[in-house]
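Dear Dr. L.,

I hope this message finds you well. Following up on our conversation about the binding site, I have prepared a predicted three-dimensional model of the protein together with alpha-D-glucopyranose. For your records, I am including the exact sequence and ligand specification that went into the calculation, followed by the structure tokens. Please feel free to forward this to your student if that is useful.
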Amino acid sequence: MKATNLILSVMCAATIAACGRNGIEARADRILSQMTLEEKIGQMNQLSTFGSAEAMHDEIAAGNIGSILNETNPAVINAMQRIAVEESRLGIPLLMARDVIHGFRTIFPIPLGQAATFDPDLIYEGARIAAVEATATGIRWTFAPMVDVSRDPRWGRIAESAGEDTYLNSVLGAAMVRGFQGDDLADPTSMAACIKHFAGYGAVEGGRDYNLTNIPERQLRNTYLPPFEEAVKAGALTLMTSFNANDGIPSTGNRHLVTDILRDEWGFDGMVVTDWNSAGEMIAHGFAADEDDAAVKALDAGVDMDMMSYAYVKRLKALVESGAVKESDIDDAVRNILVLKLRLGLFENPYVDESRIAEVTYTAESLAAARRCATESAVLLKNDHRTLPLDAEHIGRIMVAGPLADAPYEQLGTWVFDGEADHTVTPLDVLRRDMGQKVVFDPILPYSRAEASRTALDAFTSKARACDAVILFLGEESILSGEAHCLTNLELRGSQRELLAAARRSGRPVVTVIMAGRQLAIADDLANTDALLYSFHPGTMGGEAIADLIFGREVPSGKLPVTFPKNEGQIPVYHSQTMTGRPASGKEVLIDDIEIGAGQTSLGCTSYYLDAGFGPLFPFGYGLSYTTFEYGDISLDKSEYSADDTIEITFDLTNTGSRDATEVAQVYVRDMVGSIARPVKELKAFARVALAAGETRRTTISLPVERLAFYGLDLKRKVEPGEFSLWVAGNSVEGAPVTFTVK
Ligand code: GLC
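The resulting structure of the complex is given below.
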């Protein structure tokens, strides 16, 4: 180790005791004071792995790279790190990063599925498991959680989000931050979280990825920013700027967003990284004239690290020398990067134990947690005639078909770089293991977009008729959702709809399981299935979870984190819409009932679609069980509150059925009159309540009045006095309101 490095490591070791934020900043400043301008700029440069340490040797040794993403081989990571620590002049370690979105090796349901659990503790556990597995390779930074409120299923990235609700994204995003980072940032299993994509990316126009967004500041602050702010409060170490230009300003060049709000208002003291080449893409946006302009705009906005545009590493030195950029701005960025590396303990422990990965992946505990998450994430949307659960003991032959019955890679969902399909347990694996010869399997469609002839479908109908029940596994492959994978048609593709109709013609009970990365347009398919279980790409253990639910070993508790539209024309449709001045009554005349020659105003003038009405196919928060629940005697501890009070909401919750089960009790609030029009309902609290069959429990949920604050006409965040309505129910459309006042 070079003398300089030795001095540096002694200095670092000597001040470990003095750590703490100020100690770490002091250490960062000491390192900064020794750095050349080139070395500083090198820290601001993040590159994707070239595939080997040798290929990156010279750049690392010269101190031109601060972080490397997408390397996952622990031996290669150690080799790269050794070059940085032992060959570069100052021995500053690299920060290795990866998209560990919903698992590393053990794959959990996609985040949209995890959101359906309404179970922050379980989501924390999943993130912790992902961190333990990923850090065993030397990765110490993930680009997650994605907390983009998403209300458009045409947008493939809805799969990565916690859905349409601001509060749900806030709670689950914070849980993931805590899970990834753990209790001790210097612990080798701590992985820096990266809240993304800042901001408003989920509102891309037309649901087309990378498109512009037009979110006015008030709506940005009320709907899209709170999950980021909550993740900052949860201690997220980093944040990523988004690709979209909101109101014409790309986020990577938006100083108001990245400095005024994130740093000055919220006090974020972490590190900001661009999205992949999003600095350089400001040129394509027509917002930057060239790489110089892009580098200046990103740095001025408050971006510390440049992922893969090379604008910083190629242009900043000359820009400083020309006076276009102040070196003090470079220092601020590099300080944030050094502080991050110091907080993660990388200077003391830059290397990874290469034997650990084998010890910590696919443990029984991890697989059990992934199974529990897949179970809780499945949403029962239909169950006519109590078709489910099937009676495994007495049922005869079961016809199993569909492109997702045995699709180990597709079942993992999008953003699974390191999941291994050969570890996936598919539904067919479990059905065959448990039901043996009773299972008659024919996929009929090898993949979701495949076509089948009427002859083949008729043959399938005949085979199904000879069985006691049909289970179809339909949906979409992993590639059809996720980044850059947007759709205008959300119907079941290929001959899936015809396969469902063919199953219906068998006359046997039909159970349909849909695995997808988004809510699909399935309104016209519901009549062809007796039961429908929706499983947002459930991950490694999906097969076990789905079989447990089908045969009643588990009881569904999932609730929809997104509203299901009747068809694409209804998008965007979500629970927290505003009332409008002419709300639909729900009794509107629909297109097939409109008389010829109907007068211009004969239909009334309210806000609905002639061909789809007003309401969605399935509302936010909806999900059935194998039992039923009743809510009663909802009461509040007071009728009038001040802004710093907490509302104690108490209610009877009864399991009125014959199965022990868990209900997600949801609290919705409406601010009846505001300085701006307010949503008809907003989710403000929820609780998972496990009840034995027949049990009634007097349950209390606390709701801080402060959670009702919003940015009003004056763009100041406060709880406005006045009347409020509050619902406690099992979804966003049921229940009778109670009222209270905030003075
Ligand atoms: C991608 C995504 C971002 C991801 C990054 C690194 O383009 O937008 O979510 O973390 O690049 O892979």
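In brief: The first strand starts at residue 45 and ends at 48.

With kind regards,
A. P.
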